[in-house]
Write a structure and sequence with these properties.
two-stranded antiparallel sheet; five-stranded parallel sheet; alpha/beta; single chain
Length: 192
Amino acid sequence: MKILVIQGHPDPDTSHYGHALEIAYSDAARAAGHEVETINVATLDFPLLKSFAEFHAGETPEVIQGCQQLVRQADHLLIIYPLWLGSMPARLKGFFEQLFRPGFAMQPLDGGQRWKKLLKGKSARIIVTMGMPALAYRWFFRAHSLKSLERNILKFTGINPVRESLIGMIEGRPAHRQRWLRKMARLGRAAR
């Protein structure tokens, strides 16, 4: 299986826990015979979109075109990011706005009344790390930003199924972090 990892931490410093999760998953996937490519959003230079017209008809930056090609080739996406102010970091959101543009991810039909999903046949897993308990994010805060990514970006473009792993209390117990690294390795081997 061809797996594309999208590392969404906006800091290029690889000492963050999300990078350890990425490595555990990717190494296990490669050892199981899967092909793995990685996009590190923090290292990409791209502009933010500023208008409806730019989103629909503006020129796609070359670096984003390369990322779109990697998505096109992938069977499965692994998206990793830290929860910042209740949502994904702004840099990752800006990247998704550039990446999942009309003509690549979806195509308007009937003047935009309906949309053709252009990324069908792909699956995804979203990994969100956070300082709070994951249960609090899921139940008290209703995981609103995660649901938005699943429904309004991934499933809207045809990516399905979308699975999730919420990892809370990451600043805490080392044993907790190690358990999640082992789980990521299992998921990587299974390409899930």
